[in-house]
Fold this protein.
Amino acid sequence: MRIDFFVINLDRSPERLADIRADMAAAGIDLIRVAGVDGKAIPEAERDLLDTPRFLRRHGKRPAAGEYGCYLSHLKAIEAVAAGAAEAGVVFEDDVRPRPEMLAVLQALASRDDWDVVRFAHHRRPSRRRLRVLPEGRTLAASFHGPTGSAAAYIVRRTAAQRLAEALKPMSLPFDVAIERGWDTKLRTFDIWDDLVAFSQRSKTSQIEVGGRYGSRKLKPWRRLPTLVFRASELVRRIAYAFAAERAR
């Protein structure tokens, strides 16, 4: 299977692009740049893709400008995968570095048609159900709880990419939460453990996701009751989804 590799990068961050290009070139990967969207440059009244009432109910925090830019950036990347000639596309944020075994594991993953979207960078390590053994000690798995964190590296099958982009509209959650909800997108959405990338030093100074301070965006406790109900429902749906996922024979 041919795989194209995309990187999301803001125009104001050429040094980050140079770093990841060098790291990926050393691994034999030629990156296709996707210009990141600077959410802070979009006035709040013009954030047409954002469903603010639903975001507040589901997430319990006011959306940050950086979250909106991040979301639009990833949609651009996924739509680039859909428009490409390769059978699948990998999307990176520009603060990751490949592990030496990454390509071999991705090629082994791509050899079978039992997935649509697979993430391979995370900030949390939940309990999970193993679906398939991959090379280099990796496994394809479905997580029992989450969200598991980062959307800094994932692979999307081209035949699923446009469906994923449409399923993610409008924005009602941060992107790293929205992409892993296979029970909602109706796509086979899993994870590779352990991660196939590491986070570079630049990940400590994210350019896309920076927004207002966390505490200043959080709603009052009584306004977060719908969020608690939503999260409880999500947990049940996630567990059911993991159990329903088919193990490879």
Summary: The longest strand covers residues 3-9.
